[in-house]
Structures are given as C-alpha cells and as structure tokens.
C-alpha cells in the first residue's frame, strides 16, 4: 500500500555540529535531500517502519475526534504509528479551537452537564475510539504497543491520593486494555504510580526531565510490580513508559547560555555558546544508560522471570524548537532498543520524509557526563533547570486545562441558549 503523505516541507537548516552527536551524512541534510519520490513500494523505505526494526516505537503526540472519524489515525497506524499520547494542551486545541465537538457539547449541555463533565465525556469517548483503532497493534505486539494515553487532571500533580483516585476512575471509565493513564513524575506522583501499577493499571509517567527523577520512577514501577506479585496477581500484562522530555531542556539552557555569554564576552563567550544545543540529548543519553543499568540488575531479573515488561523510556517533546537545529535531531539522536518516541504531526512527517535511522543510543555516556560538568562550570545546574521545567510543565498543563474548561463552558452556554 502506498504511503499517505500529508504535508510538504520547505527547506530547513542542517543539524548543528557537535562533538558527541552522531554524524548525519551530507546527502541527508535538508539542503541536498530531494522531495519525496514516487516508489513502486515506498513502504519498504519508510523511516517510521525502519525505526521499529531498530527497536523504537513511534507514537503520535496528538488526538482529535476529527482525526479518528476521518480515518486519519487508521492511515497513521498503517504507516507505522504504534501508539497515541494526549495531554490537556492537545485536547484544548482539539476542542476549543474547532467546531468538530460542538454538536456533542450541545447535546451534553442540554442534559445538564457542566463544562468539566462535558470534557470528561468527550475525552473518554475519543480515547476509547482511538484504543479501538490501535487494538490491532496491541494484539500484534502482544501488548507491547498500541496504547493510547489519557492524563489525570493536571490540578492533581502535587496530590498523591487525588492522582491515584483519578487514575482509577479513568481506567474504569475507558475500560480498554490498551489504555495508559498519564501521571506526572512529581514526588507526589510517585506513590500514585507505584499503587496504580500494583492495581494493574498501565501507566505513562510524564514530565520527566531529571535523571534522578527517572531513577525514582523506575523504582516506583518495580515496587508496584513486586507488590502485585506478592499479592499473587499476574505482572506479565502490565505496561509502562517513562516520558522523558527533551527539546524543552535545550530551549531553557540555550537561553541561559546566551545570557551568560553576553555577559562574559570575548573567548569565554564563544566557549559558552559552543555548549548550546547539546544538553537535551546528553541528558537523555544518561537517562537511557540508567534504564539499561536498572534492567540488568538482579532486582529486575527476578521480575523479568515472572514475565514483567521493562518500563521503556519514551522521548517526549521531540519537535525542534530552534530553527538553527536539524528538524529531526531529537529523533535521530535518540534511537535505541526498547524506546518510544512520541512525535507531533509535523515531526512525524519530517522524519518520514528525511529521517535517518541508525542506532544512536546509548552513545558515549562518559562524554555526556563530561558535558554536564562543562555546563556546571559555565554556571548551569541541571537539577535547577529540571525543577524549573517540571514546575513550568505542571503550570502549563493546568492553564491549558483551565482554558479548555472555560472554552467548553462558553460553547455550552451559547449552544444550549441557541
């Protein structure tokens, strides 16, 4: 079946050079790469499908009722998409900025539901429908892929008991085996992650930036599995991913580096600027090394013997924010066994157009550690950066959720009144 191409792309800048980045062949740079060509069997050359051969699953970081009902998600599944992630911002854009949900909002509004209950119903319906579209992937991979993620209320990011209660509620409401409940990887989220895993709920841990936080999440996952096994419950049917955010790290650190370079001036300024565009990938490489170490540990081997599945690292925020960087840098540089990359629509199209598939993980982690030491010497502390990004992420999702409810209420009032 021919590949369905949705978007065309203008020429984009090349990847910045960096000592520790895998070299992309010159013929693969956007300036010299051709437009998509007709191929008698183009699926054989699909970079998305080649990623699966390299051990990485591509999930789609977007959802809407229009995408599902139009057959767009089914086409993406055929092209190699193996899962879907959602968040409050994605739902805010889908519901508030289109009229595709208006008839459903009116119907639910006339039944007396308020904005929060209306959104809840709309989201659950969309997630259930997406789960059905991806169920063939779930079945074909024996439950390794085919998941659709739905996030607990962002208002509960610092509320352990509330998070667990919402996770249980959504799990029961959707009632699909290929659902994943998203829980923020805040300190307060850790007990909820542990207990949800112990209860048999598939979990997508979101908003991870720090390697230490990733370590705590891996521990919560294993502890939840151990508790479930001790209770005599099966653990071979539980799946989890740890969503480690990438490009946002560079966005913040690059800004801080530029501010420090401007103050330093001269040769020091150039030395500081040379650190730009590398922190996100080096940080993610260390997270992947941690994953490899933990899954090689005796503790994990005991769980593996009982059928446990690894908690795969999921690379999130993989769209390129800086136009100076190659548009698929956060995809090409983070390819490894037992990983997931959730890509927004434009990044999916860019990667399927000109992405280069090669094993780029784990990379040289000693260089990664040395780079972070250079950052520290330049006055950039990764722990501080990561805490800032978690706080900003929680606030951003909470604001999107508030804006979404306000938009639904505005639509509900107008439609019911009409």
Q: Could you please describe the fold and organization of this structure?
A:
This protein is 53% helix and 10% strand. It is globular and about 65 Å long. It is an alpha/beta fold. It contains 17 helices and eight strands. The chain has an eight-stranded parallel beta barrel, surrounded by ten helices. The termini are far apart. β7, α14 and β8 form a beta-alpha-beta unit.
Please give a quick description of this structure.
With 418 residues, the protein is α/β, with parallel strands linked by helices. It has helices spanning 47-53, 65-69, 72-79, 88-96, 102-110, 115-140, 160-174, 189-198, 211-230, 247-264, 266-273, 279-295, 298-305, 329-332, 345-354, 365-377, 382-417; strands at residues 56-60, 81-84, 147-151, 179-184, 203-208, 240-245, 312-316, 339-343.
Strand content: 5-15%
Tell me the total number of β-strands. Answer: 8
Strand line-up of the largest beta sheet: 1-2-3-4-5-6-7-8
Shape: globular
- Evaluate the radius of gyration: 22 Å
User: Could you state the oligomeric state of the chains shown?
Assistant: single chain
Number of helices: 17
User: What is the N-to-C succession of helices and strands?
Assistant: HEHHEHHHEHEHEHEHHHHEHEHHH
Q: Per CATH, what is the topology of the domain at 46-247 and 298-356 and 396-417?
A: TIM Barrel
